[in-house]
């Protein structure tokens, strides 16, 4: 592991339960992976057998969970320091570090092979690349090296709709990369907003988040810039084959609200109390969760309605 000071072989405080092993897979992150991959699969311009579609989403979900387990294995030392993560299975002594690594590796191999068998080899290979990118490029390399960690590393979380599309079609097109861009550009303002009111965690753990290396003022400026760029991608996607009037309406409303929230963060009163300012940042963070779900939900609705002549342009 990355920090020898963390005792990877710590004894269990209690016998691990099913819930502890499930938590190891980062179920909240997995739910986002499942949903965006499903949208990518349904939005693809081909008909997919329901059973094949179910298997594809299942194995993509398992691959996402495997990434989470390997992330927790490598980051167990800093997870034990940060308030937000110290109750995770490994630092809490519920699951052993080596056991988490073995589970992550086994699930990674299984998910990639089974996705390739259920759909096509290209999808299995792309899932393997996504796991590698998240675990090696982001977790092991970028996260503790650069304040741009979440920008570059955010690509891993943006790949699932592309995997879903490839699982359905066996090929790449422009449309899944528009969904990729939506998630990729959303990730920095989402996590930087979290970092603004959780900065002490990253300070204590020595993680070079932008709030730590450049300060809060610079972070708020970055949030506004990325939110403006995100709005261009999000609204522009409405005029592609995955868009339509429903998506356009959702995108215009949500991006107006998101830009307003980013502007309020940028213009926050430095003389106001931390509690008042944190309310603004926390509100923006909560909106960011709704933002991505509703955008992909709109893409899904357009795709479902399209065969009936109701979705799309």
UniProtKB/TrEMBL annotation:
Q: Where are the transmembrane segments?
A: 29-45, 51-74, 122-142, 149-171, 177-198, 219-239, 245-263, 284-305
Relate the protein's function as given in its record. Converts heme B (protoheme IX) to heme O by substitution of the vinyl group on carbon 2 of heme B porphyrin ring with a hydroxyethyl farnesyl side group.
Any idea of its EC number? Answer: 2.5.1.141
- Which family is annotated? Belongs to the UbiA prenyltransferase family. Protoheme IX farnesyltransferase subfamily.
Name the chemical reaction catalysed here.
Answer: heme b + (2E,6E)-farnesyl diphosphate + H2O = Fe(II)-heme o + diphosphate
NCBIfam families linked to this entry = cyoE_ctaB, PRK04375.1-2
Return the protein name.
Answer: Protoheme IX farnesyltransferase
Q: How does it assemble?
A: Interacts with CtaA.
What else does the entry mention about this protein?
A: Carbon 2 of the heme B porphyrin ring is defined according to the Fischer nomenclature.
UniProt entry tagged with the keyword Nucleotide-binding: no
Recite the UniProt keywords alphabetically: Cell membrane, Heme biosynthesis, Membrane, Transferase, Transmembrane, Transmembrane helix
Which pathway does the database say it acts in? Porphyrin-containing compound metabolism; heme O biosynthesis; heme O from protoheme: step 1/1
Q: What organism is recorded for this protein?
A: Aliisedimentitalea scapharcae
- Main localization (coarse): membrane
* Its membrane topology: Multi-pass membrane protein
Compartment annotation: Cell membrane
The UniProt entry, under InterPro entries, shows: Protohaem_IX_farnesylTrfase, UbiA_prenyltransferase, UbiA_prenylTrfase_CS, UbiA_sf
Q: Name one Pfam family in it.
A: UbiA
> Under the GO molecular function aspect, what terms does this record hold?
protoheme IX farnesyltransferase activity
